Fold this protein.
Amino acid sequence: MTLLPAATALAVWLARSRRQTYFIATGGALATLILSIVVFALYDRAAGGVQLIDYLAVDVGALISPSYFVGVDGLSAPLVLLTGILSAAAIAASYRIAHRQKEYFMWLLILETAVMGVFVSLDLLQFFIFFEFEILPMYMLISIWGSGQKRYSAMKFALFTLGGGAFMLAAILLLFFSNGVNTLAMVSVPEMGIVGIPAVLPLAELAAPAALIFSFFLVAFAVKLPVWPVHTWLPNAHTDAPTAASIMLAGVLLKMGGYGVYRICLGFFNSSAGGFSAHDAAQILAWFAAFSTIYGAVLTLRQTDLKRMVAFSSVSHMGFVLLGAAAISAGAATASSAGLNGGALQMFTHGAITGLLFLCVGMIYDRLHTRYIPHMGALIFKLPKAAILFMFAGLASLGLPLLAGFSAEILVFLGAFAVWPWQTAIAAFSVVLAAGYILITVGKVFLGQRPRYGVLSSKVYDDLRDIRWFELAPGILLLIPIIAIGLWPSLLTDVFEVGINAILGS
Amino acid sequence: MINAIEILAYLAIALPAAGFVVNGLVLRWLTPARLGGGSDSRWASYVGVATIGAAFVLSLITLFHIVQNGAVESSVFNWIALPGLELRFGLILDPLTGLMLTLVSGISLLVQLYAIYYMREQGADQPNKNYARFFAFMALFTASMLGLVSARNLVQVFIFWELVGLCSYFLIVFWANRPSAVAAARKAFLMTRLGDFGFLLAMMYIAFNNPAWLEIPELYGAIHAGLISAAVASWIVIGLLAAVVGKSAQLPLHAWLADAMEGPTPVSALLHSATMVTAGVFLVARVFPLFELSNLQPLVAIIGIATALIAATMGMASNDIKRVLAFSTISQIGYMVFALGIGAYGAAIFHLFVHAFFKAGLFMVAGRVGHITHSFDMRVMGGVRKSQPFLYGVAVICGLSLAALFPLSGFWSKDEIVVAGFENGWAIGSVLLLAVSVITAFYTFRMIYLTFHGESRGADAAHSHRSEAETQAATNGGAARGRLTGFLRGEPLLSLAPLALLAGGAIVLGYLINPVGVSLGPIAKHSFSSFITHNPAVFPTPEAVIAAGGEPHFSWIVAFLSIGSALFGLLAATLIYGRGRVRFGLMQTAPFKHASKLFTRQYYFNELYETWIADRLFLKSLAKLVERFEIYIVDEFGDRLAAATQIVGAAVRRVQAGSVQLYASVMFLGAAAAFVIYLAILMFG
């Protein structure tokens, strides 16, 4: 499954016509989607643990013993599914690309492979390689097919992520030079005799203070998540990236950060190692999360560029992921379970919701060639289907019950409040701000009167055509999980819970 | 096990929800136009009426079952089950739910019937009439409201609470090309959302104490077992009260309701007077033991009385017929909140119940009058009585009921609240309510005189700022006027029946409370209040039932006082706006004019909230400051860091040519930053 998109990328290279290229790429992405659904469905939540394991130890005789170790557990299975869904939607939505089309799809498919690789890798080194590898296709996508200050944005993205990656590499090295850590497996699998880092870390004699290793990992993931103050790459990258890249970036790449926090920061340091555990840092994390959430929401209210607005709303919403993660409490494991599950669920729901928002922004940009909100208005009368899709996504984003965003947020709020009441109360205020920025945007862009100046004042408005079925299809694909999770969050929380229990239990 | 009554109640919620899907998706998008689909599908109204009608029948059966057998034990299912947090959903089928189910679905059904004709006439200035969208959201609203009143878990209440707000948003913004409608809908949603933040905090605080208490029956149990202290209850109540104040448009979050009149009139009749805005009152009633336990009951009462008074004065000064009714709604809900604040549970619910009838009736009259005169501005109306005697009759009956004149429904319900005020040590509140009663009668009959009496002041030709659309809209509506003659002239049957039923309700329903102490024909003494308070889960002891107003009293003195004050207001309105048009000397004085301006400008709340707080203080100052901080400090720092890296990179390049410099410099940067963070963690961690 991980390699299928890359294989498709090869096939794309062989394609002869533009149509062929598009269909091969979409077909590959759809096949991956089906595979990811199969993986998700096959994951036996009653049995728990890591499943569908493929393990191959590579003995190089040195002190490093890397391995090819993939598998999914309750935490990664839903994220694999998310990657499948979003990649299929992003690739299918890219039918308008004309410039260097073949390369474009190849990079997009390679990106999918890299992200899948991150989520299924259970060897720390392998994880790191995929984590870093993802920068390359994204850099290309932004700098070649982007808009605006695309080179600046692509470089900013690459630098921030590489900078974070450097911290992670340092952390991995420090771990590895510690006595008693002679494994790179990220989880333990007792049946196969694999001993993971979480199991050995509490007993190990660390080469550096555990707090340092923890914070190195944390910095890498905080950049990716992103958390204030290392979020500044995100608005640039999102805004200047092509639609599909924005969808992937917001939808799944950010989740690598969240996944890392869960898998490594919490997973490795849940039990006290070298006198330090993740619980000690949780309070600071919660403050950062609360601050990010409000800060992002306030900035979102000030944006006049539609894409930047969605981008800043991501900063705000990803704060909930960190807040959920920070709900890990030293006292009772049960108390933190809801918050952790909510944060994990927020990763999934934010991916689908923001993906859909970017998809709709792309539809509008394709027609108007502007993203400047004051130049828009009354689009619902011309683009009713696009408007309805945007409203669904927007309402889900502002936390409307029975849509996905609410399910995650209520879990985070109810769970995290028990551990960090003040931080959670502050963060929860962002739902009011979210209602503000979503409704102001919907009102300005879709409702009311068309503006007297700008692009819509001309004939462009009269000639606007609503989206066709093939544009609608990716939107529907993203809408399905949004509604399904909203109505019945247990679909995912049952699975996440298995993974999170493993993290808390180890 | 799930029982039959429960299935009926679930169906009552599910059917209108299905109506939403059919109207909003199947008819609107999936049915081709030749089969009657599309945005103007006539079938939409039939689907709406059929599903809501079915819901009404099911609700009635449920109500009768509860009347006969008391509250029904219901089953639960897990929405989310995590260790430490189980969100178990289900239904509460107690007397309060039974009453609210029937009230909501019944009023909703009447409004749908009324809307069939109304929406056909309305909206000719639009590209299409969006029949399907209108009935879709009306059905979704009904489903959400039914879900809200029967929800068993506070999270479940919140879910429907928000959905109701969403429907309100989409129905206010129904004519989406009007900027005023867009602004009004946004304001409504944001103001209520601000209150809902309190709801969220309250739920978090409950879950913090004990997640099981999110389930309302468990909450009752914990309260009666003395597990919740007054302090804890007070914190929860503060949060819930914010939500109540937002949703029920009480001070200080009342300012959205008047603007919400931008929506079609059937929406105002259903959402913004009869049902949705009473959701806040319902919520207080639902967790009533919690409010009783908290120390905040006086605050609740004060909010209620202040709102009743202030909104009534705003109603006196408004020239828009729908806004007068909106302020009246705010004021009347103030009565209910006051009643709950002083512990008069039965009286509050009873006023909620009868208010729905006469207020929905008045709104429907206002909608019809608006179509006939092509305006909602009372300054240009007048003389409608001659052409529309039926509407006039309904308006007078409902108006008298609103003004609380004996023997109409409103008299009985308000009288109970005033009596309870005197009995429960809130005499000053009751006196103030009597003053509000004068104002209520005054603005009601000012409205009726301006609209129906005298001669037309040129409404047909008028182009007031908000009636332009309707003026064009009703050019075809004018044809309907000459269709019938006599008493029912110009009134289509579809809007006649609901109006007649509501007027009938405004006359007779008051007797249901029967405080006199003997059976009146078929109505046993205290029939309504003993039914609504006979709920052992909420009021476990006979004393609690009595305290909640299970056996209301009747006081001749209070009755005379309230009739007298209503008559006084009526008389004043007659003198000033009736044939005489008396101009009192008092009205020319400066203080009077200042007061009048204050009322007209609605105490400058809108200026305070929109111009000062939302715009200048928040968006233009605070948010701008944050934005500057982001651009000039946070982002700039990142860029400077990158620039510094480049310099380092250049240095490295001199030493060691190759492509690794980027990596090297970044790693150098990373190590430096890591050291800083390490120090920080050492300090704080």
About this structure: Chain B has a mean pLDDT of 82.
